Amino acid sequence: MNTLLMIATRNLAQHKRRTMLLGSAVAMVTTLLVILLSLFSGMRTTMLRTATTLMTGHVNVAGFYKITTGTAAPLVTKYQGLTELVKKSTPGLKAVVTRGRGWGKVVSESSSIQAALSGLNIDSEPLFRDVVEVSKGSLDGLRDPHTVLLFEQQAERLQVKVGDNVTLSSSTFRGANNTVDLRVVAIAKDLGFMSGFNVYVHADSIRELYELDPNTTGAIQVMIKDANEAENVANTLRKAIEDAGYRMMDRVPQPFWRKFESVRREDWTGQKIDITTWSDEMAFMRYTLDTVQVLTIVVVSVLVVIIIVGVMNTLWMAIRERTKEIGTLRAIGMQRGYVLRMFVTEMAVLAFSSTAIGALLAAALCWMVNAAHIVVPKAFQVFLMSQTLQLAPDFGIAIRSLLTIAIVTTLGALFPAYRATKLQPVTAMHAGN
Amino acid sequence: MNSENLKTSAASAIVQLSHVDKEYQLGKVTVPALHDVSISIQAGEFTVIAGPSGSGKTTLLNLIGCVDVATRGQVIIDGRNTLELKEKELTRLRLDRLGFIFQSFNLVGVLDAFQNVEFPLLLQKTLGKKEREARVQALMESVGIAQYAHHRPGELSGGQRQRVAIARALVTKPRIVLADEPTANLDSVTGTAILDLMQELNRQGTTFLFSTHDPRVVARAGRVIRLFDGRIEQAGTESARADEASAHAAPQAGGQP
Ligand SMILES: Nc1ncnc2c1ncn2[C@@H]1O[C@H](COP(=O)(O)OP(=O)(O)O)[C@@H](O)[C@H]1O
Ligand SMILES: [Mg+2]
């Protein structure tokens, strides 16, 4: 092996130009792959963080309450007990929040917007504080009853400032119309399209609007350590909650709000619990991420093909130049397998060193991009749910990219190297060099 | 040569060819290169295959060197019938029992002289590092290139390169060393020195079989096998050496018994 490595490195050094050319191509593709994956992972992280914090949690334990067969309300009654049960039963739990929920109109003196309403207890929402960046006012203002947080574009539409009053208007689940007056205490920076239709108010304001008792909330939202575990956690919770004697909705992998119409028509009454995951709730987000992932795969595949062609081409050249050497070595007793290993080693040395360089370069670039706080165009902010471009490179991504490219490169070497093993030892005898 | 003779000589022969034909296929054309060649070479011999260009010297050495196969006939190397050996076994046979010296030296350019000589031992994997290096060192001293151990072939003269190649061929202590026109790419002084070296090594016990079309080289052979148009013309012996001088002047005379 030592000898193989020595021959490999020396041959690479011998043909500096060719080695540099292929090496930098391989390094560049690695860099690109790491950056794309970091971008993807950064997007995913940002989107997930924003969406789960603002709207759904990783696992959304919500409920339908039917007073009569023809109605349905998005309520969880006696939520305290259920919350304790959820906390107890969730593996890898990070946080649990309860949110009142509704749908209504926010009216100012000059304008109005339709919005999804969330009632929250700001003191039990540390993650919300991380995600929402207040530009005017303060989140602490939401501690007071009858307060509301708006996002910049909403405030602009409504032409209100911190300290102004708006009116929340909705029909109660019994069908009557009701309003609540709220004071704007905070205006937050936009977070993509999420901030277009979400309005956050003090939890009690939702209860007041819908005439609910203090033991009722809209949903129990569970944040877990690993978002990928959401499906498993949801299943665990489903079982635990059912075992505790609650009635459960059948599992339908659709957003909670989509089920409203059909639930309304069902002929049971009382409480049923419905558990969804962030990916049930945010199908569009999965599509966005899937699209980016597919794009990444396509781009990388093309690059990988280019690399393979480059590797094969380079190796053909090397083999053509060294035909006589191979013949000689075969003549003096080198087995075919050794010839194969000789060329594959050469490409592997090139591949691993250039991918390592490429990965380091990518890490440096990611760090620079993050440090620069590049503000992305508005159109992208909508998808990104963030204003700046954040790349999330990690050791795993770098190693995975490095290995992928290095292995692909090495595989590209296999075929030419295999052909080289078929060279006849007789070629050693041929005249000329 | 009758079959009786073949059997008796085969017992101790390193190389035993009987009724070997070799034809090359060039598209639809069959090019005969060797016809009914039977030879046997004993340990310790210093044999020259002589003949003009195109007479089949290289072809013959390739068959003996197990890098090509006969169209007809038997090639037995060190008691093993090469027709019956698999590719892997043939390669191992070349590694362990044959030594090769090439016309254009054929050293590995990226390895230095020492590493070139050491290489067959690395392929063999039978000797430990210490033993291996000692053997390479001793051999390089005996062929007079010890001081160039860490020079790459590109930094050596033709004669020095061929010495490295000779050391490489000898390092595995092969049963026979094959050389196809080993002096053809060297000037006559260097060529003579290389021949001196080969002869000296022969005296120390190495069996040599090499080809040449240089009459001066033929003159130094212990035994001459003459090829003409792919046939053996005359098998010279130690006693035939005296005739060689006249053979140079009139190559046709080589046909005489
Ligand atoms: N690979 C080959 N394909 C076709 N014909 C060949 C090949 N090698 C040798 N020959 C022919 O075989 C004959 C013997 O060639 P060779 O053994 O090279 O002779 P020498 O080494 O004595 O010059 C020549 O006629 C040559 O043209
Ligand atoms: Mg020849």
Would you mind describing this structure in some detail?
The complex is a heterodimer of chains A (433) and B (257). Chain A folds into 2 domains: 2-49 and 285-431, no CATH class; 58-281, no CATH class. Chain A is built from 15 helices and 10 strands. In chain A, a hairpin with a 5-residue loop joins strand 6 and strand 7 (177-188). The radius of gyration of chain A is 30 Å and the shape is elongated. With 433 residues, chain A is α+β, with helices and mostly antiparallel strands. Chain B is an alpha/beta fold and 257 residues long. Chain B has one domain (3-255): P-loop containing nucleotide triphosphate hydrolases (Rossmann fold), CATH 3.40.50.300. Chain B has 9 helices and 10 strands. Chain B has a 6-stranded mixed β-sheet. A 4-stranded antiparallel β-sheet of chain B has the order 2-1-4-5, sandwiched between helices. In chain B, strand 1 and strand 2 (29-42) form a beta hairpin. In chain B, helix 4 packs parallel to helix 6 (158-170). The interface between A and B is medium-sized, with 26 and 34 residues. Bound molecules: adenosine-5'-diphosphate (ADP) and magnesium ion (MG).
User: And the CATH topology of chain B?
Assistant: Rossmann fold
Q: What is the level 1 CATH name of chain B? A: Alpha Beta
Mean pLDDT metric of chain B: 87
Number of strands of chain A: 10
Integer-rounded radius of gyration of chain A: 30 Å
Contiguous helical run count of chain A: 15
Q: On the 0-100 scale, what is the average pLDDT of chain A?
A: 89
**Number of discrete domains of chain A:** 2
Please indicate the percent range of residues of chain A in DSSP E strands (runs of 2 or more).
Answer: 15-25%
Oligomer: heterodimer
Residue windows where pLDDT falls under 50 for at least 5 positions of chain B: 1-10, 236-257
What count of helical segments of chain B does DSSP give? Answer: 9
First and last CA, distance of chain A: 27 Å
- Shape of chain A, please? elongated
Q: What structural class do helix, strand and pairing data of chain B support?
A: alpha/beta
Weakly predicted, low-confidence segments of chain A: none
Helix and strand string of chain B, N-terminal first? HEEEHEEHEHHHEHEHEEH
- The total beta strand count of chain B reads 10
Instruction: Give the N-to-C terminal Cα separation of chain B.
Output: 14 Å
The total tally of domains of chain B equals 1
Biggest sheet strand line-up of chain A? 2-3-8-5-7-6
